[in-house]
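name: query_chain
kind: protein
chains: 1
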Amino acid sequence: MDFAQPHNQLAGPTVQSNLKPVPTPATDTDPLTATLRSASNAALATALGSSTFAASDFPESHIPRQDLITPGALVVIFETYESLSFVYAARSAVFSNRNGVFHHDDFIGKPFGSKLQVS
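structure:
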């Protein structure tokens, strides 16, 4: 997880659903309505962790999407099926591993997911 990059707070599907507890009236004459209200509030409490929260208390956080690798972007390097490395792309920088030497300038400007060969 990259905590160095800025994260955006967005109103995701949970917030847009406007979920909130159903208020209980002072007098509830219909037992079926009371049972449904109670079950609905219990399900919401289970989903959100407490009946005192509303979905708007849980905005979604994510890193802004980019299509191309830019300087400063976090790049995940798949070396093998069992080995990953992480680098921040920087002009004139070099990443070396057992497969060779990779110049950052070679992958800056390329789409994420590109394959590179040793130069």
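note: The chain has a mean pLDDT of 77.
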